[in-house]
């Protein structure tokens, strides 16, 4: 199986990689050794042509008529998603959303782990521990990020503070930000930002419900 990743992977394909990985893990847990593009597509809710097109960006992941080797593909996507080693993540903002994420056990589902959290210097949570995660003052982030060996941050701060905090993260050496703040962040080209807009997703859901 060739696993050379080609360049220019479409964003839509990239967003499905973790879904493919989850599906192959589920197949493997169910002792399924081979899966067709149709079976994979049905498990995700897309068409089989999309599955084949997505996989084509990574070379020959399977053979026509033989299906896809579940174990090999599970390992392949684990490697692409860097799920073979622990990824330390920082949480910025411990309000309602932040607390919920602290209590979400990422490490039980994959190898991502929130190792520390940060809040405004005068916030009452600073100096406490929640779910074994210490909460520090944002002014200490440059020092703490070196200790944690972390380059990834989850941002759950008010929109009015998002860019200011993003600037602090970039200066501290963060290279990836998952932002729950519905504002576009201005960051250097070598910093990747992924946005999660729950309000937008809910509005989209309601639109399709009414349309149907």
From TrEMBL:
GO terms for biological process: negative regulation of DNA-templated transcription; response to redox state. One of its GO terms (cellular component) is cytoplasm. The keyword Transcription applies. GO terms for molecular function: DNA binding; DNA-binding transcription factor activity. It is found in: Cytoplasm. Residues 19-58 bind DNA. Pfam families: CoA_binding, Put_DNA-bind_N. InterPro entries: CoA-bd (IPR003781), NAD(P)-bd_dom_sf (IPR036291), Rex_bacilli-type (IPR058203), Rex_DNA-bd_C_dom (IPR009718), Rex_streptococcus (IPR058133), Tscrpt_rep_Rex (IPR022876), WH-like_DNA-bd_sf (IPR036388), WH_DNA-bd_sf (IPR036390). Residues 82-184 form the CoA-binding domain. Keywords: Cytoplasm, DNA-binding, NAD, Repressor, Transcription, Transcription regulation. NAD(+) binds at residues 93-98. The keyword Ribonucleoprotein does not apply. Its main location: cytoplasm. Belongs to the transcriptional regulatory Rex family. Modulates transcription in response to changes in cellular NADH/NAD(+) redox state. Binds to the promoter of the aldehyde-alcohol dehydrogenase adhE gene. Functions as a redox-dependent repressor of adhE expression. PANTHER family: REDOX-SENSING TRANSCRIPTIONAL REPRESSOR REX, REDOX-SENSING TRANSCRIPTIONAL REPRESSOR REX 1. Homodimer. This is Redox-sensing transcriptional repressor Rex. It comes from Streptococcus cuniculi. The gene is rex.
């Amino acid at each position: 199986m060739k696993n050379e990743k080609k360049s220019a992977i479409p964003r839509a394909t990239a967003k499905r990689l973790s879904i493919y990985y989850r599906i192959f893990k589920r197949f493997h847990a169910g002792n399924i050794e081979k899966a067709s593009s149709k079976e994979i597509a049905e498990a995700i809710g897309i068409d089989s042509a999309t599955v084949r097109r997505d996989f084509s960006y990574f070379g020959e992941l399977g053979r026509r008529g033989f299906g896809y080797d579940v174990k090999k593909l599970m390992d392949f996507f684990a490697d692409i998603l860097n799920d073979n080693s622990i990824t330390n993540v920082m949480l910025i903002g411990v309000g309602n959303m932040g607390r919920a994420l602290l209590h979400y056990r990422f490490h039980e589902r994959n190898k991502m782990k929130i190792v520390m959290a940060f809040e405004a210097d005068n916030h009452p949570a600073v100096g406490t521990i929640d779910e074994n995660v210490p909460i520090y003052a944002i002014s200490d982030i440059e020092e703490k990020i070196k200790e944690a060996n972390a380059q990834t941050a989850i941002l759950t701060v008010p929109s009015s503070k998002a860019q200011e905090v993003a600037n602090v993260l970039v200066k501290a050496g963060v290279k990836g930000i998952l932002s729950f703040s519905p504002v576009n962040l201005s960051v250097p080209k070598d910093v990747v930002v992924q946005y999660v807009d729950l309000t937008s997703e809910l509005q989209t859901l309601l639109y399709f419900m009414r349309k149907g």
